[in-house]
Amino acid sequence: MSSDGRVGATQQQMLAELRRKMAAVPGRGESAVERVPDAAGSGREVLPVPAALAALLPDGGLAKGSVIAYTGARSLLAGMLAAVTAAGGHAAVVGVPRFGLLAAAEMGADLERLAVVADPGPDPLEIASVLLDGLDLVVLGLDGGSVAPARARVLAARARNKGATLVVADGAWPHPALRIDARIAGYVGLGTGHGRLHSLTLEVEVRGKAGVPGRGHLDLRPTADRVRWFTRPADSGDTELFRARGAAS
Questions:
Q1: Which residues does residue 219 pair with via DSSP β-bridges, in sequence order?
Q2: Percentage of the chain modeled with pLDDT above 70
Q3: pLDDT in tens, 115-152
Q4: Closest by alpha carbon to 86, among 127, 21, 136, 130?
């Protein structure tokens, strides 16, 4: 068998196994995920996000059936997955080989409800398509690649028809419903004594297809029971805040 044939066979085996697992996942109607109507009163349902991020999103959460383009720090992606799985939903991360499972767990993620496909093979979009059949949230890493408009329309239609939310990270996706960019703005604690990180600040921008972009700063801090997100007041100053623009989490 040629190398291409072996790769194709492996991909088909992975797809068959994923379909088997999707059949065993409880239906979304039975899921404990909180779904909140949007502020406009249209009844649009959303998946929960960390409360600090919700204030920046036009629907207060991740709209079901939508595609969201994400760039920047992976820590906020971990926060989104934690919020969904902690509320009883099912999620997956595809094509993000160094995704921080420990970070997600520290934010409250239920790892039994989170699948990780670090190496999706030559066609990660096909893997994501299968996962959209049974999960509430799928995060798809594009590794700097781009998706052709025709293929993007097919996958977006699948997400919409299945009532699932697709977040595409680190790549080009044509005409997403929402764009979220999260960049590290600074941190507190490293090098100030014990070398421990007390908080991480992200500068977040949210852009929809219309309207003024939402912008804000979010702090990630350890608390007594877990690591949590907080909204940083616009006028808050901290002489210990170290600038780290352009860094990755």
A1: 201, 230
A2: 76
A3: 999 999 889 999 999 999 989 999 999 999 999 999 99
A4: 136
> Is residue 196 within 8 Å of 46, Cβ to Cβ?
no
List the structure tokens of 91. Answer: 């999620």
Residue 195, pLDDT > 80, answer no
In order of start, what are the domains of the chain with their CATH numbers? Answer: 11-179 (3.40.50.300), 181-243 (no CATH)
Residues 6+ apart with CB under 8 A from 153: none
Quote the CA–CA distance of 33 and 31 in Å, as a whole number: 5
The dihedral through the CA atoms of 190, 191, 196, 198 has a sign that is: negative
Is the Cα torsion angle 190, 97, 167, 147 positive or negative in sign? positive
Residue for token pair 């066979």: 9
Q: Please identify which residue in the block is written with the tokens 């767990």.
A: 105
pTM score of the predicted model: 0.82
Structure-token match 């509430």, residue found: 136
- Expressed in angstroms, the distance from the first to the final Cα of the chain is 41
Residue showing tokens 């999103």: 57
Share above pLDDT 90 across residues of the chain, in percent, rounded to a whole number:
61
- The sign of the dihedral angle between the CA atoms of 36, 38, 42, 47 is negative
Token pair listed for 155: 């996958």
Taking the C-alpha atoms of residue 65 and residue 158, their distance in angstroms, rounded to an integer, is 8
Q: Which of 167, 140, 249 lies closest to 202 in space, CA to CA? A: 249
| Angle, CA of 124, 48 and 148, to the nearest 5° | 25
Q: With contact defined as beta carbons under 8 Å apart, do 204 and 211 qualify?
A: no
Burial class (CB in 10 A: 0-12, 13-18, 19+), 216: middle
